[in-house]
């Protein structure tokens, strides 16, 4: 069993975290490895993630900027729930940072 982990002040201090390349134009700062996984994703303006399927629940909280998918645009403060079996692609015209939690890694379908 994993020990509980707390990130005190994360909403006001995530900018100081170390990010590394994840996909072209997208950087990641991992908060919890494994399943479920938790991380911060930072999208450069115009960056995106291709169409993918969620084999488990994914939860996204937009911290800064605007994240978009085929269903709409989600500004800072938006909470997005992508249930198991859903598909979409993700992008950010202006750039954004999100807190993301997933139960299983996504499966790319495009």
Write up what this structure looks like.
Helix content is 4%, strand content 53%. The protein is mainly beta and 110 residues long. The protein has a single domain, classed as Jelly Rolls (Sandwich). The strands form 2 sheets. Strands 1, 2, 3, 5, 6, 7 and 9 form a 7-stranded antiparallel β-sheet that branches. A 3-stranded antiparallel β-sheet has the order 8-4-10, with no helix packed on it. The longest helix is centred in the first third of the chain and has 4 residues. It is globular. The model has no long low-confidence stretch (mean pLDDT 92).
List the helices and strands and how they pair.
Layout: H1 10-13, E1 20-23, E2 26-32, E3 37-43, E4 48-53, E5 58-69, E6 72-75, E7 79-82, E8 87-91, E9 96-102, E10 107-108
Please tell me the total number of domains: 1
Instruction: Please report the first level of CATH classification, the CATH class.
Output: Mainly Beta
Elements, N to C (H/E): HEEEEEEEEEE
**Secondary structure: helix percent:** under 10%
The third-level CATH topology is Jelly Rolls
Q: Which architecture name does CATH use?
A: Sandwich
């Amino acid at each position: 069993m994993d020990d509980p982990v707390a990130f005190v002040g994360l909403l006001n201090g995530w900018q100081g975290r170390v990010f590394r390349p994840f996909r072209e134009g997208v950087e990641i700062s991992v908060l919890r490895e494994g399943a479920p996984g938790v991380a911060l994703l930072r999208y450069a303006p115009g960056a995106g993630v291709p169409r993918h399927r969620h084999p488990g629940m994914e939860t996204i909280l937009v911290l800064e900027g605007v994240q978009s998918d085929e269903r709409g645009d989600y500004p800072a403060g938006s909470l997005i729930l992508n249930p198991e079996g859903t598909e979409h692609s993700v992008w950010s015209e202006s750039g954004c940072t999100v807190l993301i939690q997933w139960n299983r890694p996504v499966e790319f379908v495009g």
